[in-house]
Structures are given as structure tokens and as C-alpha cells.
């Protein structure tokens, strides 16, 4: 079993557009995957450990994977994860891979995919809060995919907005505006993206959300009031949202994969208010990990990586 670390993945220089492609492929193939609900354990306030298994179709057979992601708010980085890949046909473990880069880029790519799929046709103003790596990844992918000028309103928080804007200083299609309150960030925005990992309550009242707005709360926090009056709610998987307290009050619910595959309509009118809950499902992580593994194999890089032997028994084991 090969060990693939963070630096190995970074050295591949995978482009934001390739991340978008991988996200789109994973979403398209969702109905061919086996996807149990993730297990989420929360031993302390603000701390979680999520275990996320799935089996996806691969180029040469099915690929199984398990992602484990933890969040400790006082740790740097607060989010850490790893992905274990397995050949389903043989049961062979292929790789234990760092999930830090994958978690950030696949989450951002999926958020960008929702914007491209569900935003109104002439969207040009984005409101953003929770300006960590996930939000950066979302804007990296979106700015290269949509290829038009965007005004991005950033909610001020401990100077993060300045660092965020500096990261995109070379992107001539992005204009940044700093705002002091969540209400300012939401009002007048065509798309609202939140990367906040902790919010104790909803961020602003109903009247802040104008016609045609798309809200993408990446970590599902801060916008539960929208559940009750938005025209449509989309998510990456029914099993991961059916326990939401307002699920039975959604006006209309659809999985994003059904829109991608032409089974159900997405946005039908530029006045519709739409909420996209991208919970984060392991088929995205496993698809990214399998694509990275394949890319490294094609480049001949697997041969120079460290390998570990689990020393499994080769004969029947009795206690």
C-alpha cells in the first residue's frame, strides 16, 4: 500500500479547472455509487470526527474508499483528513492518502459547480463569509470557470478579508468590497457562499435575501431560515439531509445529480430563491483520490513513494 502525502499531491499542480471536472464527474456518477450516510461524532463543542465510506465506479473496476476528517478549532490547520483507497475487485488496499488538499479543493469545486448550475443567468455579485481555504478554493474554481467579471463582497473578520483579497490580486476579473455585517454581505448579492465552520445562529433575517439569490452554505450553517421560504432546495445526497429539522418544510427538494443527469429541472426562473446544501459526501473525495492515484501512476511517481505492509495474516487466524 502506497503512502501519498500532502507534498506529493501539491507537486502535481492540479488546476482548478481539473478540480471542477472531477467534481462534475463524481456528481454525474452518483447513482452508480454505493454511498452510506456518513458517521459524525462530536465529542466536544466545535470538535467533530466524520467517517465517510463509499464505493465508486473506476476506470478499471470499482474503487472503495473511506475518508476520515476531524476538526479541532485550536489546531492548525483546524481541519485534517485522510483517504484510504481499496480495489473492490481484489480487496487490495491501494493507498493511504493525505486528505487536506482534497478536502479543500473538492469542497470548493463542488460549491463552484452549484453556482454554475443553479445561479441565475446573469449573476455578477457574490457575497462571501467564512474566508478560509474552502472559500478560497471555491473562488479559485469559480473565477476560472465562469470567465466573467465578478464583484465579491467579503464579510470582515479578523483581517481575513484582506488576506483573502490579496490571494486573488492577480485575478483581473474579480473586484473586492469589504462589508461590516452579514446583512450587507447578503443584500444585493446574486450568490451567497459561506465557508464558516461555526455559526451559533442564522446570520440575517428573511428580507435580506432578494429574488433570484442562490445561497451555498458549504458547512450547512447559518441559513436555516431560508429552508422555510426559498423556492427550491438542492443537496448532494438525500440521505445526508433528510434528518434536517426543516426538511419536511422544504417547498421542493432535488438532488444535484438528478439535475446534472436531466432527471429533474434545476433553476427554471431567474426570480427563484435557491438553497444548495453541499453536505460533502465521500464519493467526491474518493473520486479525487482515485484521480490523483491514477495521475501519479501515469507519471511513474508511484514507484518512488514509500510503501507500508500491513502484515495481514496469510493463514486462518484463531484466537
Features:
about 325 residues; alpha/beta; 8-stranded parallel β-sheet; 6-stranded mixed β-sheet; 8 helices; globular
Based on CA inertia axes, which overall geometry fits? globular
Low-confidence residue ranges: none
The percent of residues in helical segments reads 25-40%
Report the radius of gyration as a whole number of Å: 20 Å
Q: How are the strands of the largest sheet arranged?
A: 9-8-7-10-11-14-12-13
Order of helices and strands: EHHEEEEEHEHEHEHEEEEHEH
Task: Describe the 3D structure.
- The protein is an alpha/beta fold and 319 residues long.
- Helices cover 27% and strands 25% of the residues.
- It has 8 helices and 14 strands.
- The protein has helices at 6-10, 16-28, 100-118, 133-146, 160-167, 182-186, 256-260, 282-298, and strands at 2-4, 39-41, 48-58, 61-71, 79-87, 93-98, 125-129, 150-155, 174-179, 191-194, 214-217, 232-235, 253-255, 274-277.
- It has an 8-stranded parallel beta sheet. It has a 6-stranded mixed beta sheet with strand order 1-6-5-4-3-2.
- The longest helix is centred in the middle third of the chain and has 19 residues, at 100-118.
- The radius of gyration is 20 Å and the shape is globular.
- The model has no long low-confidence stretch (mean pLDDT 93).
